[in-house]
Amino acid sequence: MAKNWYPVIDYEKCSGCLTCFNFCPHDVYEVRGDGEPLVANPSNCVELCRGCQKICPNEAISYRGDLATE
């Protein structure tokens, strides 16, 4: 699992569809009280997986620690 690499949600783009929450088998996400996804367990993320980013219909997910964005 990753310590310095995890998903970051852009809430300006996020529609709250919960595709990322429903996809991730590692319990990285939880659902906030307002129904939007929250990266609650970032250390559970598998480094370089990118599965939730690939399926996000609004391209609302990027990654902290991604060399492409730093």
TrEMBL record:
Where does the 4Fe-4S ferredoxin-type domain lie?
5-34, 35-66
Q: What PROSITE patterns is this protein classified in?
A: 4FE4S_FER_1, 4FE4S_FER_2
UniProt keywords (A-Z) are: 4Fe-4S, Iron, Iron-sulfur, Metal-binding
Query: Which one of the record's GO molecular function terms can you name?
Result: 4 iron, 4 sulfur cluster binding
Per its UniProt record, what Pfam families does this chain match?
Fer4_10
By its UniProt entry, which InterPro entries does this protein fall under? 4Fe4S_Fe-S-bd, 4Fe4S_Fe_S_CS, Fe-S_Ferredoxin
Q: Which Gene3D superfamilies match?
A: 3.30.70.20
Spell out the PANTHER family in the cross-references. ADENYLYLSULFATE REDUCTASE, BETA SUBUNIT, FERREDOXIN III
User: What protein name does the entry list?
Assistant: Ferredoxin family protein
Species of origin reads Thermosphaera chiliense
